[in-house]
Design brief:
Structural class: mainly alpha
Number of strands: 6
Distance between the termini: 78 Å
Length: 425
């Protein structure tokens, strides 16, 4: 203590010594990591936090156990629930320092400590989550009185467009119809061929007043152009235009879609068909997106938001592209058929409710599958989607007028659909 204040000069000097002695002068001299317990976790003692920090440093290789030549570090506990770890990136023995894959190694250390100390368990990193909005994006959205950051809104818009499009041109058309700004990248050899794309949310500008563009892979791993283009390698052909107005064809589209989704739910529960599960699960998201169009149009609403959470649960881990399956193809065809219905009409509320209930069962089956695979984050996302979809279906059921004695039961309209749903006359 100096004049009643902590004197950190000696500590700072000790941390800097290996850096000053390193003739290579690394471009990044400090590694910083914040470690925090969950709100429901018990309070850890200083000794327990030391065990956690040493495990993290060991797993990352920055200061392995029994390695006297490792990097120098300091851990500071600012509050009861978290500590900050600072490491100077120069080893004491002069060897090179590597921070490669440190994000994943830290995750492994945290999960090990959670199990050892009886803390809330977190899911393993598997690259199935969509890209999260940065703190700056969230704060910017709040300043502009948006409920969510443009990156999140764009991801849902792209998911919805991809679900119902059957060609690159149709995909771009769907996005523009939803009000999204689209910038296409064309082949230099053949200008008619699209080789990439970026999207921007209307009114979202940078400091120079230009739109803030996001490539598909910056929204979610399965929204890159390469992954989307693979959907359209086998042309599906145009859908019958009369599907929009012919009552019999509309009923058939609802029935076929609902039956296909129910078959998909059974398939996910059948571990003998586990090899096609990821493709079936992903294709099921297309049907949910199409159902959102029926209930909410292109507006943001409950079912649209559920699509994002469901796809989080459905994606194959580590960006893997699942092999195509016949049932997955049937689901994607069903989604495109539903898209041709435009908005649900009065008298079709029961059909929409049955479809939503089937998608809820699909999400529940996916949650059970992810539970057996010990993929906790995806399990939680699937259960959240199942609850929301079943809730939307129940709202439609309750919206049905009570039948009078001796009269046929009237189908409920979709006017009571969750959040922003509206029915068409």
């Amino acid at each position: 203590m100096v004049d009643g204040k902590h004197d950190l000069r000696a500590l700072t000097t000790m941390l800097q010594q290996p850096l000053l002695a390193d003739f290579r002068k690394p471009s990044k001299s400090v590694w910083h990591c914040a470690l925090r317990t969950a709100p429901a976790d018990r309070r850890l003692s200083d000794a327990e936090w030391e065990v956690v920090v040493r495990e993290v440093l060991d797993r990352t290789g920055l200061a392995s156990k029994d390695d006297e030549g490792g990097c120098r570090w300091v851990a500071v506990r600012h509050a009861a629930d978290h500590v900050h770890v600072v490491v100077t990136l120069a080893r004491q023995d002069g060897r090179r320092v590597s921070t490669s894959n440190d994000f994943y190694r830290v995750g492994e250390a945290c999960r090990s400590m959670e199990a050892q100390l009886g803390l809330q368990l977190t899911g393993a990193t598997d690259r199935t989550a969509g890209k999260q909005a940065s703190r700056g994006e969230v704060e910017k959205a709040l300043r502009h009185e948006r409920t969510e950051a443009p990156r999140v809104l764009l991801r849902r818009a792209v998911l919805s467009a991809a679900a119902v499009a059957n060609s690159p041109a149709a995909f771009v058309t769907e996005l523009r119809a939803a009000g999204v700004l689209v910038r296409e990248r064309r082949s230099e050899q053949d200008p008619d061929v699209i080789t990439g794309y970026a999207v921007a949310w209307p009114g979202d500008h940078n400091a120079e007043g230009q739109p803030v563009w996001f490539g598909g892979s910056k929204l979610a791993p399965d929204l890159s152009w390469g992954r989307l283009a693979a959907r359209w390698e086998t042309p599906s052909g145009p859908l019958p235009p009369q599907l929009t107005t012919d009552p019999a064809l509309r009923q058939d589209a609802y029935r076929q879609a609902t039956q296909t989704v129910r078959a998909a739910a059974r398939a996910l529960g059948d571990h003998q068909r586990i090899t096609e599960a990821d493709d079936v699960a992903t294709a099921g998201g297309d049907v949910i997106a199409a159902a959102g169009r029926l209930v909410e149009g292109r507006q943001e609403g409950t079912v649209h938001r559920v699509t994002d959470r469901y796809q989080r649960a459905a994606r194959a881990s580590w960006g893997r592209v699942p092999p195509a399956s016949p049932l997955g193809a049937y689901l994607r065809r069903a989604a495109r058929d539903l898209a041709r219905l435009a908005r649900a009409k009065r008298g079709e509320g029961q059909e929409v409710a049955d479809l939503l209930m089937a998608t809820g069962a699909l999400a529940a089956a996916l949650a059970d599958l992810r539970a057996t695979q010990h993929r906790r984050e995806q399990e939680a996302a699937a259960r959240e989607a199942a609850t929301a979809l079943r809730g939307a279906a129940h709202l439609l059921h309750r919206a049905a007028p009570a039948p009078s004695a001796g009269t046929a039961t009237a189908h409920p309209t979709v006017t009571a659909a969750p959040r922003q749903g509206r029915g068409h006359a």
